[in-house]
Design brief:
Keywords: DNA-binding, Repressor, Transcription, Transcription regulation
Protein name: Transcriptional regulator, LacI family
Strand content: 5-15%
Strand order of the largest sheet: 7-6-8-9-10-12-13
InterPro entries: HTH_LacI, LacI/GalR-like_sensor, Lambda_DNA-bd_dom_sf, Peripla_BP_I
Low-confidence stretches: 1-12
Number of strands: 13
Shape: elongated
Helix content: 40-55%
Number of helices: 12
CATH topology of the largest domain: Rossmann fold
Radius of gyration: 26 Å
Length: about 350
């Protein structure tokens, strides 16, 4: 049996299918079939011998080349606004895990919140022949998904949706309702809502859920306490300053993501207000930091892995439904920040 003869410092030699076939005494097509991990594994003596020879020679299947022969690259492009946002980083990692299970590699591009940058990033990824796009940066009226639909580019929106393209999202309205209903059930009627940017479906959905809970409870919300914000910590701190500096301030705050809630915590500290006692606070997404804060944060949890796996299925699937939108149900995780010490999740 031949070996590849590699030594430290020598140039790596690429072992071909033909070399494996010659060493194993079988045809090249047999080797290709045995080593194709997309096929059910064969346990015949010939297949076992081919795998042993391939391992001894150091053969590695060239997924890129075989994908090109099928007109694919086994690569998926992922668009996120920024990876400094914990939620977007977690979402990208979840997409990467889901893609790996299906034999795909992911390539990420950050876009900020500028639609022109989103367009440029999408075109850049498509020029690298990705097999499709997973997009977490879309606005409700973003032109990119429409262009992708018209050009028949496989794609799915994740976390956010334009209401038309294939989308895998959390049920944001249900989550906003859960968060606000929790505060109402704890006895609060003076509730502020920090919505996030209303050009996103996440913000509009969570605000709609909050308004529904307030309306059902017969609570007329103070318009000064419904604040459109960004999604960053700084936006939460700025909104918290505005709320806590006023002569009449709320007793509870629903922040439409955990970064906003962290900003509210910082503002409360500056005004000598204790979270969980003076101010009840609920966030959204249940990022890992939430439960490890000095005052653990009550938050609405969505399953990033479930959302990512569904997005990949939508992007890769051929379906009779031209505009499928899948929603994952959220769970409320009560902690000390809302004045609740229970750790039992509450589902919608």
């Amino acid at each position: 049996m031949k070996t590849n003869g590699n030594t430290a410092g020598s140039k790596h030699k690429v072992v071909t299918l033909r070399e494996v076939a010659e060493a194993a005494g079988v045809s090249t097509s047999t080797v290709s079939r045995v080593l194709d991990d997309r096929m059910p594994p064969s346990h015949s003596p010939t297949a076992q011998r081919v795998r042993e020879v391939a391992a001894a020679l150091g053969y590695r299947r060239n997924t890129f080349a075989s994908s090109l022969r099928r007109g694919q690259t086994a690569t998926i492009g992922v668009l996120v606004p920024r990876l400094s946002d914990t939620v977007m980083a977690l979402m990208y990692e979840a997409v990467g895990r889901a893609a790996k299970r299906l034999g795909y590699f992911t390539m990420v591009a950050t876009t900020g919140d500028d639609p022109a940058e989103v367009q440029d990033a999408a075109h850049s990824l498509l020029s690298r022949n990705v097999d499709g796009l997973i997009i977490s940066s879309s606005r409700r009226h973003d032109p990119l998904p429409q262009q992708l639909r018209e050009q028949h580019v496989p794609h799915a929106l994740v976390l956010r949706t334009d209401g038309i393209s294939p989308s895998s999202v959390g049920d944001d309205e249900a989550g906003g309702y859960l968060a606000t209903r929790h505060l109402i059930d704890l006895g609060h009627t003076d509730i502020a809502v920090l919505s996030g940017p209303l050009f996103t479906s996440t913000a509009t959905g969570r605000l709609a859920g909050a308004r529904k809970a307030l309306r059902e409870a017969g609570i007329e919300s103070n318009p000064d306490w419904i604040i459109e914000t960004g999604f960053g910590t700084e936006s939460g701190a700025e909104a918290g300053e505005k709320l806590f500096a006023a002569s009449a301030r709320p007793t509870a705050v629903f922040a439409a993501n955990d970064n906003l809630a962290l900003g509210v915590m910082a503002a409360a500290h500056r005004y000598s207000l204790t979270i969980g006692t003076d101010i009840a606070l609920v966030g959204y997404n249940d990022i890992p930091l939430s439960q490890h804060l000095p005052i653990p944060l009550t938050s609405v949890r969505t399953s990033f892995d479930q959302i990512a796996a569904t997005a990949l299925d939508l992007m890769l699937a051929t379906t009779d439904d031209p505009h499928p939108i899948r929603k994952a149900l959220p769970t409320l995780i009560p902690r000390q920040s809302s004045g609740s010490h229970s750790s039992v999740g509450i589902r919608f």
